[in-house]
Amino acid sequence: MLSIAVTIKQVPDTQKARFDPKTGTIDRSGTESIMNPDDLHALEMALSIKDRFGAVITAITMGPPHAIDVLDEAYALGVDSCVLVSDPAFAGSDSLVTSKTLSSAICKLGALDIVITGCEAIDGNTGHVGFQLSEYLDMPLITQIHKFDVCDGHAVIERLYGHEYQKIKVEFPFLMAIGKNSNRVRIPRLADINACLDKKIITFSMKDLGGTTMEYGSAGSPTVVIETELFSHKRTREVFSGSPGDKADLLVHKLKKHNILRY
Amino acid sequence: MDFILSKNQLMVQKSVRKLATEVLDEWAPVLDREARPLPPEIVAEMGRLNIWGIQAPQQFGGAGLDSISYAIAIEELSRVSATVGLGVTVHNSVCLAPLLKFGTPEQTERFARDLATGRKIGGFTVTEPQAGSDAASIQTIAVPDGDHYILNGQKAFVTNGGVGELFLTAASLDTSKKTAGIALFIVEKSMPGFEVGKIEDLMGMRGNMVSELFFNNVRVPKENMLGRPEDGFRISMQTLDIGRIGIAAQALGIGRAAFEAAATYATERKQFNKPIGTFQGVSFKLADMKTALDAARLLIYRAADLKDRGLPFSVESAMCKAFASSTAMRICLDALQIFGGYGYVKDLPVERFFRDAKVTEIYEGTTEVMKIIIGNSIIKEFSRL
């Protein structure tokens, strides 16, 4: 039986969110909170491992008390236990302190075989946490996972990037970062939805993790946001001239330059 | 008083909406065009998600949810595919629900699990070619014979008829006794003499295999009678009270689908250099639609809530059914008008919503019968003064 922890995060639904043009930040007051989309795929990865090989899954989130909503959702999807890492002292944590805090909480869960995270969250989009957890937990991080198997006490993982596959054999424990292309997230059963709110949620506060307020939250975070600005993608149009053959050559040249065509 | 859905109800809404949009959406036009039922693997997947046993206890493989959650689920399914919503609501609220409510422990033990998990689809049948609103005039008869009753007769317009394996069937033990002579039987498709007749070629709801059923000397064991011999009519009427909440929720789903399609179209379609939604002739229609949908939803939730509290809900159920179904019909008419010529072609789903909506004013008691129920209760209440 494998033991798996999945880190999940409650985020504002940035597709529906309004941005404050002055501060460049999300107006969180009127925005619905959802589970970070990549984290749903991380949970699905854990659940499919449980279905195929047997596993005990713990979902863990760090955030304010209302972040338990995503833990309820995790229970409805089929995880076995849930942990909320929450303390006023954690407010304003940057990605480094978040990873440090999460890793302390994960260490309290006992021996684990796999830790799974989403690739990135849609509110900050740093994509840091997987890599930083890998350092703090001293576990190798595997990304761009296409296929997962367990064979002779090892995980056999196919990675897909660009036009290539890589097949690797990994010893437990390790960490995986999962993106939205890895799987299709299941729909929760109505019976599990009905039962999910009655299930126990364990809370870890600063007292449980140890340390002082200077090590956590904004006080402990080295990242300083000086300014934020709205960013827009601009597309430019280019018209090639010459014979059809010349134009085709030029197009291939450009596509290779941008690494879209490689051979 | 609480007008906000609970956390659990919101999760149910999200989950069923995901099922409807990710799985059923691509099937909805196919079921309509080809007049075929859902493929078995999707029926099974819906079973895994507890859709065939939304309110059935978890011990039988159901989800054990409340009646408002049930109405939410039916609305979400019907918004995408009314014909799927129909199969689900008939199975849940007029087959499984009365079995759980009126069945003996032995009967629920024998039949509830297969129904709640969707391994068997169920139906409920009173209507006959000559007995519609006048349900007491049924001609299907049941004659006792040792440990069995022998059923003979014919049923009409049976929802789930072509795919169902278990039907709660009304039959008369003594036609001279009218309502007091009617008993309800749990009849299984596998019983010799049970025969599925013609599958109806319907105007809407074409993915439901609505059919005739024939009973030719069908030997039904006595332990398959639901309730006492004289209870059949009473149970049937109480069953329809429950069923009407589901049909109202179904009408609500269809109305919402037509409204959302019309509102989207009204912001995209430009005439005279402006989106047509900016013309009051269109926006007033949309305003009426949204208001009526909300009113229908609140009537449905109120009836559902009364039911869960164990209070009388027969009149409220009739009110929500009559209002929601006529609302759905009117919204479909107006939505089609907003779409203009594009509403009249089969490439877009509005004409399907229109065809699907009509029958919600007819089945599980016509709008006129709903008004008789409501009207009788008014006369009864005021004649006491």
Task: Please tell me about this protein's structure.
The complex is a heterodimer of chains A (263) and B (385). Chain A has 263 residues and is an alpha/beta fold. Chain A has one domain: 3-Layer(aba) Sandwich (Rossmann fold), CATH 3.40.50.620. In chain A, 30% of the residues lie in helices and 25% in strands. Chain A contains eight helices and twelve strands. In chain A, the strands form three sheets. Chain A has a seven-stranded parallel β-sheet with strand order 7-11-6-1-4-5-12. A three-stranded antiparallel β-sheet of chain A has the order 8-9-10, with no helix packed on it. Chain A has a two-stranded antiparallel sheet with strand order 2-3. In chain A, strand 8 (145-151) and strand 9 form a beta hairpin. In chain A, helix 2 packs antiparallel against helix 5 and helix 3 packs across helix 4. The longest helix of chain A is centred in the N-terminal third of the chain and has 17 residues, at 37-53. Chain A is globular, with a radius of gyration of 21 Å. In chain A, 38% of the residues are buried. Chain B is an alpha+beta fold and 385 residues long. Chain B has three domains: 7-121, Orthogonal Bundle (Butyryl-Coa Dehydrogenase, subunit A, domain 1); 123-231, Beta Barrel (Butyryl-CoA Dehydrogenase, subunit A, domain 2); 233-383, Butyryl-CoA Dehydrogenase, subunit A, domain 3. In chain B, the strands form three sheets. Chain B has a four-stranded mixed β-sheet with strand order 1-4-5-8. The radius of gyration of chain B is 21 Å and the shape is globular. Chain B starts with 6 loop residues before the first helix and ends with a helix. The A-B interface holds A 69, 72-73, 76, 187-191, 193-197 and B 7-8, 11-12, 15-16, 18-19, 22, 48-51, 54, 58, 62-65, 69, 73.
